[in-house]
Design brief:
With 581 residues, the protein is mainly β. The chain has seven helices and 36 strands. The protein is 9% helix and 36% strand. The longest helix is centred in the last third of the chain and has 11 residues. The chain binds zinc ion (2 copies).
């Protein structure tokens, strides 16, 4: 099956020296590659085809490099883009909608009929995508993308200096990212439509894109509001100044205990210096290096970039102990020490490995994902109702388990919450971890899911103690005193004989409801479910719609259980034990 858009757009005339953008095909096309399975219910049941072929006429070959624009959405696996059978590149493997530009090498266009094809790479997983809005501009990509140069300065509201590490997102009226003229530098980490800046100052090259309006958004992760400016096609400002309001004031630290770089983990795309910039740009206070089976210290790179360790930010040396019997984050390992070898093909083997590492904190990662054929919470390994391993193996070497991994979300966003509650019920002292597992600059956002540890404000009324205390984190995590945040942050207190819930969020994330759990079971005090008694333990789970805004979109499951998915923002509170008055 092949979709042929035919000769609907015959009037293309590419002439050198004419800087105009030509529309080749304004439509978007739904393609399904690699099989007949419908990937998502939001996509039409029947695709237009498994590949796209668009033919158009040109007067003459392109003497110099030209630019091809296209719009893509929902691309998860690899698709090949070619012009007259010459491969220009592959679509960007990212579900988020984006307008991207590719260089067309000289003499790729020919006089007469030209053909653009987009085909699913054989051997890749099935993928439903939208692609189209094809345009050719006779100018070089850097001229097209950097048509307008705008100096951006970002400050925290109420503070004098414009020096706030943050993220700049450029999107169009359809909410799709728009590629900029920037590339990664010493102080920026750049991907299509996304520029992270370490110091709140960056010159961004913006295309004018015909008549389209662009939205430039400054953001800084969960704790800050956003600031947006709209640019019409005729707007050519020299400077855009943004102010971000700190909207979540929680006395403590935001920790992402699961982060990678391509430099050491060898997949994804985020380089080590880009990692420091993105962690600061998302407002994390603690970032743990958890490269696969490596103890890597990121502190030198942070120092080289002028990022100090202390109240504002610190790095932790960890290791994602990646075995054939599950993945475990080991935090607080010695960078000079040899990482644990994998011992045996058994749960006892991984326990020995975790213990031999000397880590202060051990976390069970993405327990419902299959990795190298093994899934820790597979029904043949784990009884989810009883919260026990079927082989009788222990969980007492763990301080925490990932309940939300924003880089590997689950089709049922609360399945791991139920798993965790069942384990607390039978007495495993394991905390609920939010982490990002990000290997990327923008496809998966570092620190999107995170874990908060409260800090008592000190005598100087600082919100954070001078240094992050990993041993205290181990204790607070295991005893349920930390908070999981994936768009929402919930505090639970016992006050005047009643539970009191406080939900923190920025104004761009909604909160819909909170469920209280008593001894691991959902509990509604109004429904006469019985009284809360001394000895009971309580936890609050807040939820709201998942974020779809271009500056912080929630990722879809990469290993979905089915074609429907409803992303949810989730906050899991600390545990409160009710004492006799
Ligand atoms: Zn993993
Ligand atoms: Zn990982």
């Amino acid at each position: 099956m092949r979709f042929q858009s035919g000769f609907l757009f015959l009037c293309l005339l590419v002439s050198s020296g004419l800087a105009a953008e030509r529309v080749i095909d304004a439509e978007m096309h739904h393609l399904r590659g690699g099989g007949d399975t419908r990937e998502w219910l939001e996509m039409p049941a029947e695709p237009e085809g498994d590949s796209l072929t668009v033919s158009f006429e040109a007067d003459e070959p392109n003497a110099g490099t030209a630019t091809l624009w296209l719009r893509q959405r929902n691309v998860q696996w690899r698709w090949i883009l070619a012009l007259n059978e010459k491969q220009l590149g592959t679509l960007r493997e990212d579900e988020q909608g984006a307008r991207l530009a590719w260089p067309i090498p000289p003499n790729t266009l020919k006089s007469g009929v030209n053909t653009i094809t987009i085909t699913h790479k054989s051997g890749q997983r099935p993928d439903d995508i939208w692609v189209g809005d094809l345009r050719i501009d006779s100018r070089l990509p850097y001229q097209v993308l950097g048509e307008r140069e705008v100096a951006i300065v970002v400050k925290e509201a109420g503070k004098p200096e414009a020096d706030l590490p943050c993220r700049i997102t450029v999107s169009d009226a359809q909410g799709d990212l728009v590629m900029t003229g920037n590339g990664t530098t010493k102080t920026t980490a750049v991907r299509p439509g996304v520029v992270y800046t370490l110091d709140g100052r960056v010159v961004v090259g913006l295309p004018s894109l015909g008549t389209n309006e662009l939205t430039v958004t400054a953001s800084r992760g969960f704790e800050y509001g956003i600031d947006q400016k709209k640019l019409g096609p005729g707007d050519w400002p020299d400077t855009l100044a943004f102010e971000l309001e700190r909207q979540v004031r929680f006395p403590g630290r935001a920790i992402d205990p699961h982060i990678h770089t391509v430099t050491h983990s060898r997949h994804g795309s985020c380089r080590l210096h880009e990692r420091i910039i993105t962690m600061r740009g998302e407002g994390l206070h603690v970032g743990a290096s958890t490269e696969h089976n490596l103890n890597i210290d990121w502190a030198d790179m942070a120092a080289q970039l002028g990022v100090k360790q202390g109240r504002e930010f610190s790095t932790v040396v960890g290791n994602e102990y990646t075995t054939r019997t599950g993945h475990f984050n080991l935090l607080g390992v010695d960078p000079e020490a040899k990482p644990p070898g994998y011992i045996g093909n058994s749960w006892a083997g991984v326990i020995a490995g975790c213990k031999s590492s000397g880590a202060a904190v051990v976390i069970l990662n993405h327990a419902r994902d299959v990795q190298t054929g093994y899934r820790p919470f597979d029904p043949k390994n784990h009884d989810a109702e009883r919260g026990q391993r079927l082989d009788g193996g222990s969980y007492d070497f763990l301080h925490g388990m990932e309940v939300v991994n924003s880089g590997a979300t689950q089709t049922d966003p609360f399945e791991l919450t139920r798993d965790w509650l069942a384990m607390r019920k039978v007495g495993w002292n394991i905390g609920a971890i939010g982490s990002s597992d990000s290997h990327d600059v923008s496809r998966y956002i570092v620190g999107q899911a995170r874990t908060y540890m409260k800090d008592a404000p000190d005598a100087d009324r600082n919100e954070r103690s001078p240094a992050f205390d990993l041993d205290r984190f181990a204790t607070e995590l295991a005893s349920g005193q930390t908070h999981l945040s994936y768009g929402l942050l919930v505090e639970l207190e016992w006050r005047d004989g009643k539970p009191k819930v406080t939900v923190h969020r920025p104004d761009w994330i909604e909160h819909e409801k909170t469920t209280l759990y008593r001894n691991g079971e959902a509990f509604d005090p109004k429904e006469n479910d019985g009284e809360i008694k001394p000895g009971d333990w309580l936890v609050a789970v807040a939820e709201g719609p998942g974020v779809t805004a271009p500056h912080w979109p929630f990722a879809r499951p990469y290993k979905p259980d089915g074609p429907s998915f409803k992303p949810r923002a989730i906050g899991i509170s600390n545990i409160v034990r009710v004492r006799a008055e």
